[in-house]
Specification:
Radius of gyration: 60 Å
Structural class: mainly alpha
Shape: elongated
Pfam families: Snf7
Keywords: Coiled coil, Cytoplasm, Endosome, Membrane, Protein transport, Transport
Number of strands: 0
Subcellular location: Cytoplasm, Cytosol; Late endosome membrane
CATH topology of one domain: Helix Hairpins
CATH superfamily of one domain: ESAT-6-like
Family: Belongs to the SNF7 family.
Protein name: CHM4C protein
Low-confidence stretches: 7-17
Length: about 230
């Protein structure tokens, strides 16, 4: 019995008959077998057409009757070939439709499994408890952030004072010290006595005056450095 006969007479495994019909996988396998068989039939008919055409050319007008018979057989083979082409197109369409249907069925089945799994996971979940849990998590995160901020702050005393105010006070203290130093400096007084008339006394007077002038220069330099 040919494969086509087995296909159209419902030939199949006992398991398929027991279920009342073939599974999508079994049907797809049968369709692929049929396509393969028809493809081989096509190759056979194409070969026969070429042979008959060659025979018709060979006989030609010398044996017109044999040439016409070859052409008639060629026409029959071409008709069969055209029929097989149509059958293959129909089978291909049916196979693609079955593959798509099987794919869609598997997708829907798996989506159903996923939905059941999600439902099972959510059975023991209470939305009110979830809201309370999320609120507790948020509060604890805030507490943790406050603790982290407290730990990361610089430890030490005097952080509550303004640094600018402290610098201003330091400048005032330094100015007071400078002013006090200037008050303690005694500048030499201008001599009220007249110049001595004798050379010896005049030399002593000039030496003393120069010494006071040098002392005044030193005091000026000290005052300039202090300011």
């Amino acid at each position: 019995m040919s494969k086509i006969s087995k296909f159209f007479k419902g030939g199949g495994s006992a398991a398929s008959k027991g279920r009342g019909g073939p599974s999508p996988q079994e049907a797809l396998a049968r369709l692929r077998e049929t396509e393969e068989m028809l493809s081989k039939k096509q190759e056979y008919l194409e070969t026969r057409i070429e042979r008959e055409l060659a025979a018709a050319r060979q006989h030609g007008t010398k044996n017109k009757r044999a040439a016409l018979q070859a052409l008639k057989r060629k026409k029959r083979y071409e008709k069969q070939l055209s029929q097989i082409d149509g059958t293959l197109s129909t089978i291909e369409f049916q196979r693609e439709a079955l593959e798509n249907s099987h794919t869609n069925t598997e997708v829907l089945k798996n989506m159903g499994y996923a939905a059941q799994a999600m439902k099972k996971v959510h059975e023991n979940m209470d939305l009110n408890k979830i809201d309370d849990l999320m609120q507790d998590i948020t509060e604890q995160q805030d507490v943790a952030q406050e603790i982290s901020d407290a730990i990361s702050n610089r430890a030490g005393f005097g952080e509550e004072f303004d640094e600018d105010e402290l610098l201003a006070e330091l400048e005032e203290l330094e100015q007071e010290e400078l002013n006090k130093g200037m008050r303690d400096v005694r500048l030499p007084s201008v001599p009220s006595t007249s110049l001595p008339s004798r050379p010896g006394k005049l030399l002593a007077f000039l030496t003393s005056t120069r010494k006071r002038a040098e002392d005044e220069d030193e005091m000026k330099k000290l005052a300039a450095w202090a300011s």
